[in-house]
Design a protein that fits this description.
Layout lengths: L1 H31 L2 H8 L2 H4 L18 H12 L2 H11 L4 H62 L5 H67 L15 H50 L1
Helix pairs in contact: 1-4, 1-6, 4-5, 5-6, 7-8
Length: 295
């Protein structure tokens, strides 16, 4: 754009110089083509007989400007090399036809230069128009990109829903997940150790109860048999034992055995419940671990 502006300014300057140049040439032609010039040319050998002199170069009449003075002033103002050339031709006293021919060439050349400058100006204007359109398009794209950048920045930086907040929450979730897995594993191990010890105690208690029940059963069964056969009273016993008190003892022994058997059955139930609770706890722990690992 600065180059186009500079070129346009140069073009305007050249148009002004050409206009001044064409004005000067036109004025020179009018002077050369005037009645006074024809009258003067007819009285000189240079123009009437084909000699080298064809126009006066100094003011000898009432002060009318000569072609030479007009061209000299115009060449000075416009700094035109073509006017200087015409002026040199006049000073060199070239024939009038040659001067006119050179002037015609100059006019033609000026026209060609004007066409070239017009073409350049049209090209420059076209380029500026295209560049302005491109610039407007780029500015629109910049606005769109800035909006996209703002949206992405918000998506990243928003303290509640941004990606950084999500990453932080996810990292904290991973920490909590790891802690949860560790704690649940420790609790499960502790529960399993307690379960094994409980089952061990229950099995031992059942074994003891079974042995004790067996011993008592053997004894009271034997006592019951002796009482039934009368062998328990073979020896002479005190009067206090002659009222079948052993039968009461046998009955109480049966109550004890029944209670031991009840305690043993309850112990078996407790063991079964412990096994079931352990299986459920283990299954729940494994499900929880699966979910935590998936998360």
């Amino acid at each position: 754009m600065p180059l186009c502006a500079k070129t346009a300014a140069g073009f305007d300057t050249r148009k002004l110089l050409r206009a001044n140049e064409e004005t000067a040439i036109a004025e020179a032609i009018s002077i050369l083509d005037s009645d006074d010039a024809f009258a003067s040319f007819g009285t000189t050998d240079a123009t009437s007989k084909g000699g080298v002199k064809f126009i006066q170069v100094r003011a000898v009449n009432s002060g009318a400007p000569t072609a030479q003075s007009v061209l000299r002033q115009a060449a000075k103002e416009t700094k035109s090399p073509r006017l200087s050339k015409v002026l040199a031709l006049l000073q060199a006293e070239n024939p009038f036809d040659e001067v006119l021919a050179e002037i015609a060439k100059m006019i033609e050349l000026i026209g060609e230069e004007g066409d070239a400058d017009k073409e350049n100006l049209d090209w420059c204007n076209k380029e500026r128009k295209e560049n302005k359109a491109t610039l407007a398009k780029k500015k629109k794209e910049i606005l769109s990109l800035e909006k996209t950048i703002d949206d992405l920045t918000k998506a990243i930086e928003d303290p509640k829903t941004g990606l950084k907040a999500q990453i932080q929450a996810t990292e904290q979730s991973l920490v909590d997940n790891k802690e949860s897995q560790t704690k649940q594993s420790a609790d499960r191990l502790e529960e399993n150790v307690a379960y094994q010890q409980d089952v061990k105690n229950l099995v031992k208690a059942q074994s003891i109860l079974t042995k004790a029940t067996k011993v008592l059963k053997v004894y009271y069964d034997d006592l019951e048999a002796k009482l039934a056969s009368g062998d328990a009273f073979i020896q002479q016993e005190p009067e206090v034992f002659k009222d079948n008190s052993f039968k009461g003892q046998s009955g109480k022994g049966g109550d004890v055995i029944t209670m031991l058997e009840f305690i043993n059955s309850e112990s078996v139930k407790e063991e079964n419940e412990a096994h079931q609770d352990e299986e459920e706890a283990q299954a729940g722990y494994e499900d929880s671990m699966t979910k935590l690992k998936a998360q």
